């Protein structure tokens, strides 16, 4: 389960980072 937790953590971290950048750019363009 250790490797699964690490894999999910890394995936979640990358997903959150990508989503954050997407929202940032979307907000900038939207304004």
From TrEMBL:
In which domain of life is the source organism classified?
Eukaryota
Spans through the membrane: 12-29
Q: What is this protein called?
A: Uncharacterized protein
Q: Which UniProt keywords apply?
A: Membrane, Transmembrane, Transmembrane helix
């Amino acid at each position: 389960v250790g490797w699964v937790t690490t894999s999910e953590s890394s995936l979640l971290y990358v997903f959150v980072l990508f989503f954050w950048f997407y929202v940032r750019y979307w907000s900038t363009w939207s304004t």
